Amino acid sequence: MRWQPTQESGVARIVRGSAVITGWANYYRIAHDFNRIANQADYHAFWIGVKALCRRYDITTAQCIKRYAANNLGLHIGEAGVLKRAQDVASTYKQAAPEPYDPGTGCYLEDADWEEVVRRPESRQRPSRMDFKAWTLFRDGNRCRHCGTRVTWETSEADHIEPVRNFASYSQATRLLNLQTLCLPCHKEKSRID
Ligand SMILES: [Zn+2]
User: Fold this and answer.
1) Cα(81) to centroid of ligand 1, in Å?
2) pTM
């Protein structure tokens, strides 16, 4: 807007400046924090525009603002020369809502973290059947992973997803990633198919 031949009109400068602002805003509208950055860009564009018009018409900043930026309408020369604003371009950044929490089914730790909890006592001794069943049940939120029925320690089984015979040892098969909670009917059914 500023560094142009002096014969270029004020309106032409504002139109060209507007093209840059609109192009920039359309390119960056996908960005996180776009609205804040657009606001800053508009601030700078406004003052660059004011300076350009001051030079073009050889007037003071105060005169320029009084003439071309009255009533808080931004920089404008009549209706043809309105300096566009980046903040008028709608942001397309979508902030994902957090996963809703479903009571009784929640699992805060990643499976890998659970795995470590179970592995730790193993260095001293093999984890008892009761340990991994309790961890599996807790991780699965006291629900059968097949039919979704609520279960307790008594009404469930910790099932090996891949059969134990596919592993080199019972210990290798008995990892949380290979375990699932099943209700007794589902477990019975799966054992029959296996
Ligand atoms: Zn079931």
Assistant:
1) 70
2) 0.49
